[in-house]
Design a protein that fits this description.
The protein has six helices and no strands. It has 128 residues and is mostly helical. It has a single domain, classed as Four Helix Bundle (Hemerythrin (Met), subunit A) (Up-down Bundle), CATH 1.20.120. The protein is elongated and about 50 Å long. The model has no long low-confidence stretch (mean pLDDT 91).
Length: 128
């Protein structure tokens, strides 16, 4: 049986909790976009402001992954999530200037959700 010191265990549990929180936040963000598109356009403000609350989570996940001594592949994937978030912000901010490239916004959101779930799956497999 493998025993871990408390800081490593705390970092691993924290990483997994943040990964789940991030995935749920992305799903909620897509839901808010759907509300704005299909119910009431006044929901765009919720969609825009909510992203600011969870956009930093991948960076915290990367720090916890490093602290927990998780594989560097997971750390880089967390940094990649943050890069995708920057891509989301850029496609939203410059949508009127980049034309058809703005359509990458929802595609990046799908990738964000998929990669975040894949990180959770990878972490769970590593724990076994």
């Amino acid at each position: 049986m493998r025993t871990e010191s408390s800081p490593f265990r705390f970092a691993r549990v924290g990483f997994l909790l943040l990964a789940w929180l991030f995935s749920a936040s992305v799903a909620l963000q897509v839901f808010l976009a759907g509300l704005a598109l299909f119910v009431d356009s006044s929901n765009w403000s919720s969609h825009m402001s909510f992203a600011r609350y969870f956009s930093f989570l991948p960076l915290l996940m990367a720090v916890l992954a490093r602290t927990a001594r998780l594989p560097s592949r997971l750390i880089w994937r967390c940094i990649g999530l943050f890069g995708m978030i920057l891509g989301l912000f850029l496609t939203a901010i410059f949508s009127s200037r980049i034309g058809g490239l703005a359509a990458l916004h929802p595609v990046i959101a799908l990738l964000l959700f998929w990669v975040s779930l894949d990180i959770i799956r990878s972490k769970k497999q590593q724990a076994q």
